[in-house]
Amino acid sequence: MSKCSMHLNFLLVLLFCCVSPASFDLLVENPVAGLVACSPRQIQALTQFKNEFDTRGCNHSDNSNGVWCDNSTGAITKLQLSDCLSGTLKPNSSLFSLHHLRYLNLSENNFSSSSLPTEFSNLKKLEVLSLSSNGFLGQVPSSFSNLNKLSVLSLSKNDLTGRFPLVWNLTKLVLLDLSDNHFSGPLNPKSALFELHQLRDLFLSNNNFSSSLSSEFGKLSNLEVLYLPSNGFSGQFPPTISNLTKLKVLRLSNNHLSGTLAPNSGLFELHELRFLMLDYNNFSSSLPSEFGNLNNLEFLYLTFNLFSGQIPPTISNLTSLVILFLAENELTGSFPLVWSLSKLSMLDLSDNHFTGTLNPNSGLFELQDLRYLNLGYNNFSSKLPSEFGNLTILEVLSLESNSFTGEIICNRSSLFGLVISYNNFTGQVPPCLSNIPFVILRENNLEGSLPDNFYVDASVQTLDVGRNQLVGQLPKSLINCSSLRVLVVDHNSIKDTFPFRLKALPNLQVFILRSNDFYGSISPPDQGPLGFPELRILEISDNNFTGSLPTNYFLNWKASLPTTNEDEGGLYMAYNKTAYAPIFYTYTDVLDLQYKGISMEQEKILTFYAAIDFSGNKLEGQIPESIGLLKALIALNLSNNTFTGHIPLSLANLTELESLDLSSNQLSGTIPNGLGSLSFLAYINVSHNQLKGEIPQGTQFSGQAESSFEGNAGLCGLPLKERCIGSNVSPTQQPKDEDEEGEVLSWKAAAIGYGAGMLFGLTIAQVIASFKPEWLTKIIGPYKLRNH
Question: What start and end residues bound the annotated signal peptide (predicted)?
Answer without folding.
Answer: 1-24
